[in-house]
Amino acid sequence: MRKQTRRSRAAVAVLTAAVLGLAGCDAVGGDASAPEEPRKPKPSPTPVWDSSPASMAAVGDSITRGFDACSVLADCPEVSWATGGSDEVDSLAVRLLGRAKAATRSWNHAVSGARMADLSGQMSQAAAHTPGLVTVMVGANDACRDSTSAMTSVADFRAGFEDALGVLRKKAPRAQVYVASVPNLKRLWSEGRTNPLGKQVWKLGICPSMLADADALDAAATERRDTVQERVEAYNDVLKGVCAKDERCRFDGGAVYDYRFGTDQLSHWDWFHPSVNGQARLAEIAYRKVTSVT
Prior knowledge:
By secondary structure, this protein is of the alpha/beta class.
């Protein structure tokens, strides 16, 4: 009986020591001889999209050249939505870079009449500047052909855009790209056809697939315009899809296509291209999209 008591007392003593030892470790937060180092916060990853580029270049067609905004059948890059220096427009370059830097750190390589097939050459010129941002607005001339059968196919349009981005990436892999949607050509027709002077200028050959026989509302004319409109929408789907595969590319989400250009935003020379007011609206859209968080 005494031996059992002694054994019990010894067991209790050992258990008590063990418990006290564990309690002591908890009290100092672990091994007192080797305190834990405080964890350093992980550095935040550098955002892929920079809303404050140090330079920019523009590629595209007559819209980016300010065609018919200042005088009839002539470019006016001073009022370009992308790189112009006009106070009336407050271009994207001016908004992003400031007026002084915009004059020396932005370049306009757009060409009136250009189609998607011409974009790779323009991209090569733009990439030579290693710009922080490249703006793209192209596609209207691919739909504005002598006939609907002459319009650029969707497959060729896609291949051309993919090639153009590839050209840019080889020379300027970190350049950001803002892609504007192709405008709603049918809406431009519906607005401009109310002006007799505009319709006379259209007869000189401006976007005949959409604007020819501007007053015709028969089934054939309606089908022709609808065909052009469907092709424009398909082009915008291509721009969106190809751009989505490039982490440094941002599509405008159809903002230019959706913008309801009125007569104030149309050139009073041809009632089709953007006026100075219209160029300013395009600049606003671009700035909003480029600086957006998402």
